[in-house]
Amino acid sequence: MTFAITWGVVSIYIFAPDWASTQFGEISGSHPFFFLATWAPAISAIFVVLYYAGVRGLGSFLSRLFLVRLPMPWALFILIAIPLVYILGSLLKSGPFLSPLPPEGIGGMVSLTLMMLCLGPIEEFGWRGVAQPILQRHVAPLWAGIIIGTVWGIWHLPAFFLSGTVFAAWNFFPFLVGNITLAVLVTPIFNSSRGSLVWPMLFHWQLIFPIWPDAQPYDTWLFLLVAAAVVWWNRKSMLRRGGSISEVIPSAEGAAR
What we know:
The chain is mainly alpha-helical and 257 residues long. It contains 13 helices and no strands. The two termini are 33 Å apart.
């Protein structure tokens, strides 16, 4: 369902760009169709939960937004380590410490930041909301992260053929490696928060926070080194299924914990 929505929307602009632009306007990061394509994992997740568990089940699913307990080291990782990777990666290629302000100034940066909050983080309802716990019923967290990261990367593929978006200027293979790396990195955060949705969403928001400078390709390789260290440090929990979150809809006992 996720692929059908996203690839269906994007394919219109790939195979009939003139007609699509005339009928619906030029595609961009603020176009309604871009939001629809980005929200596809969340739309699919909500549909699946409603189908199998009804409105009450959806309410329980959404209660995972209020699971805010997280060990302090992971919270600091999201708040500090991710920006440091971007800053260091930018400095390695003689780039700026932070991204320059847009022509609209601080107000424009704030607007862009809020728009980003309504884009990528919403995907987590699908990736960490449904896919991660189901996969962790069958494989260890490390492999669940690798599988989701691969699917996540391939899901973005049509955007690389779409003019008017940032993806058009990127190379797909490093992006795919980066997606797999980031999906592995967020996995122990997800499990340590007992299946929280809000922390993966904040993690995702940090990845696209517009104030952080462009650090490609160094950010990909730095995140890869960080992920290797995280997996090694957490190898007991990352390489076995025991203790990982496997509930899409939390039980009353799990919610109490």
